[in-house]
Design a protein that fits this description.
Layout lengths: L1 E5 L3 H13 L3 E5 L2 H10 L4 E5 L7 H10 L6 E5 L4 H9 L4 E4 L4 H15 L9 E4 L2 E4 L4 E4 L2 E2 L4 H12 L5 E2 H7 L11 H14 L7 E4 L3 E4 L2
Parallel strand pairs: 1-2, 1-3, 3-4, 4-5
Antiparallel strand pairs: 6-7, 7-8, 8-9, 10-12, 11-12
Length: 225
């Protein structure tokens, strides 16, 4: 992927660029909003990572300008502002995701991969079914089957499974699950994710030898074909 990182803290910018390049991506960098906007409007990127508070042009204004010009490149906002109102303002400005500082690089990388996949042609939230190996989910009928065997799931378990399957092959972090499955924009410091993952696994894997959901230690969870 080709990624643009716009960040005025040179140490953080170096950290992001080095990590993404080691992961095999091409990265352009800008240390202020004005230069970031210039690159974003003159080059093509798969994902843009934007700091919120920057000199010359702040991150939210940069995003609003991009969206106003019809540029729909996925944007992740990085910010030390962690209140829910701050996150809402960032998303309403046109940002696709919001990650607070300090952050783990694995979390940033996972979010970049998810946004890039979502933006690819043919990947839409309007699909009617999802498949992962022998598992099939009918989104309209809200049914789940593995090798033709119907699996009964509760509403939250179904939502959790759908989110994992929409990002199959990718690591989904705990924070992402809290935000997109539970609508929490903070960590409630409970084991709610562990409990639901455990219940989901017990239902999906009952009677089968191969587990579908794997734990990626220190990062999150993933479901594979």
């Amino acid at each position: 992927m080709r990624i643009l990182s716009v960040e005025d803290d040179k140490e953080i910018l170096k950290y992001i660029c080095k990590g993404l390049e080691q992961a095999g991506h091409t990265v352009d960098a800008a240390d202020n909003g004005r230069d970031g906007l210039f690159l974003a409007t003159t080059e093509n990127y798969d994902v843009i990572v934007v700091d919120r508070m920057m000199p010359q042009l702040d991150g939210l204004t940069l995003i609003k300008t991009l969206r106003g010009a019809g540029n729909q490149t996925p944007v992740i906002i990085l910010s030390a502002l962690a209140d829910v109102d701050d996150k809402v303002a960032g998303l309403r400005s046109g940002g696709d995701d919001y990650l607070t500082k300090p952050f783990a690089f694995a979390e940033l990388q996972a979010r970049i991969e998810v946004l890039a996949k979502r933006a690819q042609p043919g990947n839409s939230d309007n699909e009617h079914s999802l498949k992962a190996g022998s598992l099939e989910v009918d989104l309209l009928a809200r049914t789940v089957k593995r090798d033709g065997k119907t699996i009964e799931l509760q509403a939250r378990e179904f939502k959790l499974l759908v989110y994992l399957m929409r990002h199959k092959g990718q690591v989904v972090t705990r924070t992402m699950l809290l935000e997109h499955v539970w609508d929490y924009h903070f960590d409630p410091q409970t084991n709610v994710i562990d409990v639901h993952i455990s219940r989901l696994r017990s239902k999906l894997d009952k009677g089968f030898d191969s587990p579908l959901i794997r734990t990626v230690r220190g990062a999150g969870y993933a479901i594979s074909d």
